[in-house]
Amino acid sequence: MSTAVEEKKSAPSQPLFGKKERQLLSDPLDSNNPITVQVLGICSALAVTVQMKPALFMALGVTFVTMMSNFLISIMRNAIPGRVRIIVQLAVVSTFVILVDQFLKAFAYDVSKQLSVFVGLIVTNCIVMGRLEAFAMGNKPFPSLIDGIGNGLGYGAILMIVAFMRELFGSGSLFGFKIFDALGINYIGNGVMVIPAGAAIVIGLVIWAQRARNGMVEE
Amino acid sequence: MQRSNTYIFTFIVALTMICAVLLSLTNESLKDKQAANVAFEKRKFILTTFMGADAVGGMSPAKVNEVYDAKVKSSVVDYQGKTLDVPVDDIEIEKEYKKPLEERRLPVYSIIGSEGLEYLVLPVYGFGLWDNIWGYVALENDANTIKGVVFDHKGETPGLGARITTQEIQSRFVGKTIHDKEGDVVSVTVMKGENGGGEKSIEAYKDQPHEVDGMSGATLTGKGVNKMLSDYFTAYNNYFKQLSVEKTALN
Known about the structure:
The complex is a heterodimer of chains A (219) and B (251).
Chain A: H1 19-26, H2 42-47, H3 52-76, H4 85-107, H5 109-115, H6 117-120, H7 126-134, H8 141-171, E1 173-174, E2 177-178, H9 179-182, H10 191-194, H11 196-214
Chain B: H1 5-51, H2 53-57, H3 61-71, E1 72-77, E2 83-84, H4 93-97, E3 106-113, E4 116-127, E5 132-140, E6 146-153, H5 167-170, E7 189-190, H6 198-204, E8 211-212, H7 219-250
Helix pairs in contact in B: 1-3
């Protein structure tokens, strides 16, 4: 929450998608990733990454929620009474989360069953509330929208990496396609990868690899 | 900037109203589609109990409906085994579950093949460790041997109790019998402790017709399954008896 960005002073000639917007989109993917750098949203990252398909839907769901709620809160930011702003944010986030849940139930029923409570728990995902407090409350709607997409994708990217490793080594498949069987290799799934402990290990490895590359150390 | 209380109240009420209207509209417009999904899953479950998950998993939705319509005949019976004149779709198993055993209306899905009755598929409903569990059990036409089971749950622990939804656990029930020699219901019991999982678990209990291997770390979910199965087998027992009388009469 300490990364509050000051309101951008927009010059009339500024391009719609300039350097700043690109940065808003790319920073959360790498140097300011919500999962691996800020270590937010770990709970759902451990829970929904057994297979790639549910992880993909979860990533899309979170991206939609961060995007829309960032946008909406940013539009309302000057009208929201400061004393109840958290409640207002929560109401907006919950509304979008329930929308996602309802649509999944109607159009991707099997995925919605696998994700079960974790769709509802997007409400409590620190990434969403964190971006609203840190960014959307102090920035214009368009940058907020970009920031929401960026953070959703940053979360989703890690989810997909972890799900890729877990499904490949845990079940020997990708998106349900039995990859080792197709290659003619007799692969016995690694049980650790299927349980949440496997996700913790994989996320740890991803954080390690990323920090080694970026040369980032804890202060 | 400090705003007045009136402003805050108005703001919150307006926001709540907008959210509520939006959500009700979505729910109202998607309700039918969601209900259709649930109904379709039920059909899939029923077919899976006697055809196996692999066979049903490979079918297109249209094929599932086609096979279901061709093979499955549903009826409703009461505790005495008498057939009730109620369409099976009117029975909400979750509501019936709350009634005492003797008053429940019990759906029966008879699987009719070229040689008459092949299997009986019965819905079961109970309570696991955290929340409701349910499923379907297919019995051979002797109303005794289990052909296959499907279980589902609302909130059992992933990796532990939630394993009841896996083929690994469900395959342990295949071939078990629910009656003793006298024809009394003994049901099938999930034991405590686990003998290595997979084939080893099936091997360990292959000489025990009424017991299956437990799930390590999910003893209480196992107990829920046991109660659920014995409840429903007891409830259906009069119907089973009648069935065997009819069969002898036919022979």
